[in-house]
Design goal:
By secondary structure, the protein is of the alpha+beta class. 38% of the residues lie in helices and 28% in strands. The protein is built from 7 helices and 6 strands, in the order ββββααβααβααα.
Length: 197
């Protein structure tokens, strides 16, 4: 793939993916830059995106200022009902990557407990990450969702919505879906929006 950067257009080859699962709450992609001749050059690196609470546990030490700043941002974004993520990176030495790749390939061939084994291997390389920052996107409900939920509630059907990583996001989705109302105090919303972490 090619990427336009402040230093010009650069080409990269994707080497591997540590897949997203609902348990892992993150995905990592491993890349290497390509030279003008299309051959690999420079170090390999890992980019990881995922739930802020999960990525925070994978970060290396000495990043307090950017962590605090990013935490403030994701809280503000979540209170607006936006979906938030942390993005982090890590440069990989050739030997580190080669050892991980061999273990990853072996885990992917396992006949039993394959998903758990692959996840355990992926965790080995997703360590000592450097936080780049946070993102937020609008995740709007489809038209008539709130009306449909209200109809179901009026019919006596209990409705549960599982959403997001942050309690603020769950509250905003609950409000927009009509499960919670604007008249209720925030403390009560936090009780109603159960955190499953």
């Amino acid at each position: 793939m090619t990427v336009s950067t402040p230093d010009g257009v650069k080409a990269y080859k994707e080497l591997a993916i540590c897949e997203f699962t609902s348990t892992r709450k993150r995905q990592s992609n491993i890349f290497q830059e390509l030279g003008e001749d299309g051959k690999p050059k420079g170090k390999k690196f890992l980019l990881c995106k995922g739930a802020d609470s999960v990525i925070a546990k994978l970060l290396g030490k000495g990043q307090d200022p950017i962590i605090q700043s990013s935490n403030r941002h994701v809280t503000e974004f979540a209170e607006e009902g936006l979906r938030t993520l942390f993005i982090a990176k890590k440069e990989l030495e050739d030997q580190e990557y080669a050892q991980w790749k061999a273990e990853s390939d072996e885990a992917k061939l396992a006949l039993s407990d394959r998903e758990e084994r692959v996840a355990a291997v992926d965790e080995k390389i997703e360590t000592q990450l450097q936080l780049i920052g946070s993102t937020a996107i609008e995740d709007r409900l489809q038209d008539k969702v709130a009306d449909s939920i209200q109809f179901a509630k009026n019919a006596g059907i209990k409705v549960w919505v599982l959403t997001g990583d942050k309690i603020e996001t769950a509250i905003m989705i609950g409000l927009s879906a009509g499960l919670l109302d604007n008249e209720t105090k925030m403390d009560q919303h936090k009780t109603e929006a159960i955190d499953f972490n």
